[in-house]
Design a protein that fits this description.
The chain is built from eleven helices and nine strands.
């Protein structure tokens, strides 16, 4: 994308998008090269994607193109767009993200919607988010239900820093705690919750080779993999979550789309009732919910 004969006037927004789409396609690092090019160019220019098209024939100077070229190279090497721009939209809110946390996925919005439905008739519900990462689940719930009392746990200090920053940015109130949810002693708290929600690590280690470079090479691995079979966190939560839930409290979990039967069986064996599954936008199993009737 260098200046050729004729100067900067050759490099209009439209031509830059066409060239960069081809460049990203040839890199083999993205399944959405045009979208990525638009998002990165809009970010570099301080415009919206719609404004790119209203200014399609506007020439870009070399000075305007340089930061975009740098970001485009990062994307061609597999780095997620959200890490390059520093933000990702989720549930209609803009979250700051970085390599300390997973990039929020649209599928996880199914989990938030299920959680909201479970507490819709509860006044000032108490909710616990285990493995909060960027805080996208806990903070979305806090913004959708300002009356809720929400706590969020994570093992990683860097992730909690991102989540805390997002809480300040979005004006949401959540109580954050650093702890390892796989350790039984962390569940010895005086609080009782109406709902426990979690998007835990659920990828099997032997699935590592199937992951794209944009995930495997950049996102935090401890937030992705659960040895030995992708189900360890579900087994743990099935037996520890009841200790912090009110009688009749609920559990809502994101799962890998092949894991529904296994997770539902784990919960049923542990004594949970009304175990049901929600599908994602592609009609794949994505969220399991269950009720704890109490002993």
């Amino acid at each position: 994308m260098s200046t050729a004969a004729g100067g900067d006037s050759l490099w209009t927004i439209g031509r830059v998008l066409t060239w960069s789409t081809t460049y990203l396609t040839e890199s083999g690092q993205t399944s959405s090269p045009r979208l990525d090019a638009e998002v990165l160019l809009a970010h570099s220019l301080g415009l919206t994607r719609i404004q790119l098209y209203t200014e399609f024939d506007k020439p870009l100077t070399a000075h305007e193109r340089e930061p975009f070229k740098a970001n485009l190279k990062r994307r061609s090497q597999g780095e997620p767009v959200a890490y390059i721009t520093g933000v990702k939209e989720f549930m209609g809110y803009e979250f700051s993200v970085g390599p300390e946390v997973l990039v929020p996925r649209p599928d996880t919005e199914i989990l938030v919607e299920a959680a909201l439905a479970l507490v819709k008739d509860i006044e000032a519900p108490a909710i616990l988010d285990v493995g909060t990462g960027s805080g996208c689940i806990a903070l979305s719930l806090a913004l959708k239900r300002p009356d809720a009392q929400i706590s969020a746990w994570d093992i990683d200090e860097g992730a909690l820093g991102v989540a805390t920053s997002n809480a300040t940015k979005l004006g949401a109130t959540v109580s954050f705690r650093r702890c390892d949810a796989l350790q039984s002693d962390v569940w010895q708290v005086g609080e009782r919750f109406d709902l426990l929600v979690s998007n835990p690590p659920y990828i099997r280690p032997d699935e590592r080779a199937s992951l794209p470079n944009s995930v495997l090479g950049f996102e935090p691995l401890h937030a992705l993999f659960a040895a030995p079979d992708g189900l360890s966190f579900y087994r743990s939560l099935a037996v520890t979550a009841p200790s912090v839930l009110k009688k009749g409290g609920h559990l809502a979990l994101e799962i890998g789309y092949t894991q529904a039967a296994a997770v539902m069986a784990i919960l049923a064996e542990a004594g949970w009732s009304h175990v049901t599954c929600h599908k994602d936008w592609e009609r794949r199993d994505r969220v399991i919910q269950a009720e704890w009737a109490g002993e």
